Amino acid sequence: MRALITGGAGFIGSALVLRLVKAGHEVLNYDALTYAAAPASLSAVADAANYRFQHADICDEAALKQAFDSFRPDVVLHLAAESHVDRSITGAGAFIDTNIAGTFTLLEAARAYRDRIGERALRFVHVSTDEVFGSLGAEGRFDETTAYDPSSPYSASKAASDHLVRAWARTYGLDAMISNCSNNYGPRQFPEKLIPLMILNALEGRALPVYGDGSNVRDWLYVDDHAAALQLIAERGEPGRTYCIGGEAERTNLQVVEAICDRVDAARGPRSDCRSRIEFVTDRPGHDQRYAINAERIDAELGWRPTLGFEQGLARTVDWYLANEAWWRPIREGRYRGERLGLSS
Ligand code: NAD
Question: What is the pTM of this model?
Answer without folding.
Answer: 0.98
